[in-house]
Amino acid sequence: MRSYLLPYKKLLWAVLIFQVVAVTATMTLPTLNAMLIDQGILKANTNYILKIGAVMLALSVVQAVFGIAATWFGSRAGMGFGRDVRDRLFHTVTGFSTREVDSFGAPSLITRITNDVQQVQTLVVMLCTSFISAPITIVVGVFLAVREDGPLSLILVASIPVLLLTIGTIVIRVIPQFRAMQERIDNVSKVLREQIVGMRVVRAFVREPLETERFDKANQLLSRTSILTSRYMSSLFPTVMLVMNVSSAAAVWVAADRIQSGDMQIGALIAFLTYLVQILMAVMMATFVAVMWPRASVCADRINEVLNTDSSIVTSANPTTELSGRGTLQFRNVGFSYPGAEIPVLSNISFTTRPGQTTAIIGSTGSGKTTLVNLIARLVDSSEGEILVDDVNVRNLEPETLWKRVSVVPQRPYLFSGTIRSNLLFANKDASEDDLWKALEIAQAADFVNAMPEKLDAPISQGGTNVSGGQRQRLAIARALVRDPGIYVFDDSFSALDLATDARLRTALLPVTTDAALIIVAQRVTTIKHADQILVLDEGRCVGLGTHYELLETCPTYAEIVESQMTAEEAA
Amino acid sequence: MSESTEEEVEETPQHQVTVGPRMMGATVPVERSKDFRNSTLRLISWMRPERFRLILVLSSAVISVMMSVVGPKILGDATNVIISGIQAPTGIDFPELHRTLLIVVGLYLGSAAMAYFQGFLLAGVIHRTMRRLRSAVENKINRLPLGYIDRTPRGDLLSRVTNDIDNIAQSLAQSLSMLFISLLTVVGVLIMMLTISPLLSLVAVATVPVTLITIKYIAGKSKKRFIAQWSHTGALNGIVEETFAGHSLVKVFGQQQATEDRFEATNQKLFEAAFGAQFISGMIQPAMMLVSNLNYVAIAVIGGLRVASGNLSIGDIQAFIQYSRQFTQPINQLASLANMLQSGIASAERVFEFLDVDEQSPDPVDAQTVVSPKGRVAFEAATFSYSSNKPLITDLSLVAEPGQTIAIVGPTGAGKTTLVNLLMRFYELNGGAITLDGVDIAKMRRDDLRSSMGMVLQDTWLFGGTIRDNIAYGRLDATEEEIVQAAKATHVDHFVRAMPDGYNTILDDEASNLSAGEKQLLTIARAFLAEPTILILDEATSSVDTRTEVLIQHAMAALRSNRTSFVIAHRLSTIRDADIILVMENGSIVEQGNHEELLAAGGAYYNLYNAQFVAAAIDLDAN
After folding, report:
1. b/e per residue A489-499 (b: at least 16 CB within 10 A)
2. Which of A180, B147, B287, B505 is at 20 to 30 A from A341, Cα to Cα?
3. Looking at CA atoms only, how far is residue A220 from chain B in angstroms?
4. Which CATH superfamily is domain B370-452+534-544+570-623 in?
C-alpha cells in the first residue's frame, strides 16, 4: 500500500516540517513561562513579564498558522491516497473475468472498495494530520525537558514505560474481546433474522419458546462480552490520569532536593510539569495508533489481495478485429474445470450452430449450463478445446469485437439504475427511438412500458427492483435485442414468464433471428421443444444432441426430463 | 437513513481519541429524536432494576471527581512549600513537603480507585439493561400480528432490533459517564479556580464562549462539505455495487471504459469534498490549541503580575495552569458527546416505537379445544380484507371433509395465500367463521390450532443448525429412527447421506450448501414428522429443476395421504384429482368445484387450463 503514498512525498515532507514548527512553538511556551517566573515574577520585573508575554503570544499565532497549513497538506495527501487506491481497485476489478469476480464474490469486492479503503484512508488521514504530532511532541518535549533539568527528566524514563505497559496490557486484552463482541452481535442478529424471516414456520409449528431460548442464549453471551469489554475500556482513562498525576507528584518530590541544592530553579519545575503532561498525552495517542494499525492492516491486506490478482483472461497480442461471418458458433471438445478441482465443470463439449438455427441447452441445476454460456461470451476461458466464432478462436479475438457479435440475457436479469431508456441504450448507445420500441415489442414489454406514465423514461432502481421479476426479465431481453448481434444467448431467460407470454415472445423472436444464431438455455421442455438441436447436459457431460423427437428415442436423461414435465399425451 | 440530516458529528478534537467500534464513523450525519425528553425518561426507566447500582455509580463518580479536582491545588501547595523554603533561611521543610505530596498521591489513587469502581459497575448496568431490552424486542416479535411483519420492510425491522440497540449501548456506554463526569469536573474545577483567584477564573471562563463560537463556526463551515462527502460517497458506492453486481453485463455490452470514466469523475468529486471537510474540520485542533495557548499566556502574564504584586503564589499559578486545561477539555467534548447521546436516544425511540406496536389479540381465557381432531374444516360465510376499503373474501363457504384435498388455483397475486393466512390464524377473519371439527378456530388457543396443522411453504425456511435439528423442528421429541423414517418417506435420506457429514451437516446462513429443491424436500420431511391432521402445501415453482420437482411431487403426495389438505397449485396437472378446486382471481373466489365440473362450466378454470396446455400448440403453429 505504501507505494500509493509516493506521489504525495512532497506534501508529506511539508506536513512534517510544518508540524515540527507548530509543535516546537507550542512546546517552547513552558520554557518561556519558566523564564518569566524565574527572571520576571521572582524578581518582580513587570517589563520582563510583558516582554516574554508578547513573545509567547507571537509563538501561539505561529503554532496556529503552521498547524493549519500542516492540516491542509495532510488532508490533501490522505484523501488523495484514498482516491488513488479506489481508482486503481475499480480499474482492476472491471478488468477481471467472471471467474475472479465469482471467486472473490461481488459483495466482498464491494466491501473491499468501500469499507476497507475507507478504514485504511481514515488511518492514513489521521496519521498525516493529527497523529504525526505525537512523535514530534515526544521528541521535542524530551529534548526541552532535558534542557530544563537533566536528572529530573529521569522521571520520564520511569513513567513512559509504565504508561505504555499499562495501556498496552489493557489494549491487548480488549482487542480480542472486540472481535468476540462483533461475532456475538452478528450472532444475535442472525438468530433474530431467522426468526423474522421464518415467522410463519415458527408459528405454524408453535416453536416460539424454542426460538426464545435460542435467542436468550445468544443474548446472554453478547451481554457478557459487552460487559467485559466495557470494563476494560472504562479503566483506560483513569489509568492514564493516575500515571500522569503520580509522575507530577514525583517530579515535585525530586525537584525539591535539586532546588534546595541550587541546581535547579522553580520555573524549571513548573515548565517540567507541563512537559510531563504533554509527553505522556502524546505517548497515549501513539498507543491508539498502535490499536488502529492492525485493523487497518487487515483491510490493506484485503485490498492488496485484489490488486495483486490478474485477470485470467488475456487478450492476445495481435487480436483479430474484423469478423467475416454473421454468427457461426462452434465448440470443439471444450472442457472447463476450476484449478485444483477433481471433477471438471464441463468436459468434451462439441457442437456447431449457424445463423438461423436455434440450439437449446437443457439439464438440471449444476449441470454446467451457465458455465457454457460464460464460455461463449468469453467471460471465462476454457481449460480444454477451443471455441470458434465465425471460424476465429475467441482467444484470438479482440474482446470488443466478440462482444459486439454476442448478446447475452443472463439468468438473473439485472438492470442498472436510471431509466428504461438508459438501460436499453446500455447495449447500443446509437439505437433510435424506433429500435427501442421494436425491441420492447418483441420482448413483450411494450404494453407495460406504454402503461407507465413516463414510458421510456420511467425510472429504474438499482438492480431493477422496482419492476416485477417478469417485467425485469422482459426488459433484459429487450436490451439484448437492441444490440442486434449475430449470436443471441438466452440463459434460462424465460423461466419468470408465464407459459403464454413465453410462447408469444418466442414467436415474435422468429423474424429477428432468421439470420442469427440463437442459443437458449432452459428448464422447460415446452420452451425448447422446437429447437433445431437440443444439447442435453448431465453433470458437465453432453449426454445427448439432436431434435426433440430424436432425443426422446435415444436419450434417457432427456426422456426423463420430459416425462417429469408433461403427462404422456402432452409429450406426444 | 435519517429523518433529519441537519447536523453531523463534529470531529472530535483529535487529542481525545476515543477508542471503540464507532471510531471510524465520525462523518455520519446524526439524527435527532422526536421527543428527546420522554424517550430519555423511558430509557432511564428501563434501568430501574439496577437503581441501587446506579446510585452507587453516581456517588462514586462524584467522589472520584472531587478527589481529582482537589489534586492540583494541593500540588500547588507543595510548590509553595518549596518556594517559601528557598526564600527562608531555614531551607525547604522536607517533612511538610513530603506529607503534602503523599496526600496528593493518596487523593489521585483514591480518585482512580473510585473511577475504576464506577466504570466496573456502569458496564454491568448498561449491558444488562440492553440485554433486557433485546429480550423484550424478541418477545414482542412473537406477539406481533403477522400483518405487521408483512407490512414492514424486513431490513427496517431487523435494523431496529439489532443496529438500534447496539447504537444505544455504544452511545450510552461512551457518552453517559463521560457527559456526567465532564459536567462534574467543570463545576468542580470552576469552584477550585474561584477559591484561588476570581480574576484568573474570569480569564479561563472567557475562553469558553470563544471555544464554543470557534467550534460552531468551523463546524458550520464544514457541514456543507460533510454533506457533499456523504452524498458523493453514496453515489460512488452505488456505481460500485451496480458495476460489480452486473459485472459480466458491463463487459459484454462493452461499457467497461464508460463505467470507469464515470467512477473516476465521481471519485474525484468525492476527493474534493472529503478534502474540504477534512481540512476545515481539521482546523479545529490547531484553533483549539491557539485558544488554549492564549489562555495559558494570559494566565502566565496576568498571574505573574499578580504574584509580583504579592496577591498570588507561584504554586497557585501552577495549579491554575492545570485547572484551566481540565476546564476547557470537557467543554470541547460536550458538543460531540451531546451528538452521541442524541443518536442513542433517537435509536431508543425507534425501539420503543416498535415495542408499542399493537399486538395480536390475546387467546380467549375459556379457550375451547379439539381432542384428537379428525380434520373436518368448514368456512362459514367467511369475510376478510387486508384493508377496510377493499374487500377480499366475501361470504366464502365450503366444507372439507376429513382426508379430502382442496386445491387453490389462480394467477400470481390472486390472493391464494390469504386462505392459508386465515386457516393458520396468521390473520383474523372480519366476519363469519372457520371451524375445525365444529369448533370455531377463533375460540381456540392459537398454539392448539396450529399444533394440528402442518405447513410447507414455497419460500423454504431453514435455520442455521444441523439437518437433523431442522427436520426435528417438526416434532422436538422425535427419535432418531423417526427422523430417518420421515426423511426416507420424503426422499431426503438419499441426498443427506451423500453429504460428508450426513444428518450432522450444518446448514450455513443461507443454507447455500443445499439446492432449492433439496431445501423444499427438507421442509416436507419436517412437516411429515409433525404428523399434522391438516396440511397446507404451497407448490414449488420454476427455481427447482424438473427432476427434483418430481421427487417433491412424490414427497408431497406421501404427505397428503389420509390428511385433509389444502394445496396451492401452480401446475394444473397435479390437482386434477382434488376433491374441491377453488379458482381465485383478483383476491376473490370465482369458481368452486371438481376438475370435470369446472371444465364443463367453461369459465375461469377452463381458460386457465387452456393457457397452460395449449401453449404447446401455439408453439407448433409458430414453427
Report:
1. bbbbbbbbbeb
2. B505
3. 7
4. P-loop containing nucleotide triphosphate hydrolases (3.40.50.300)
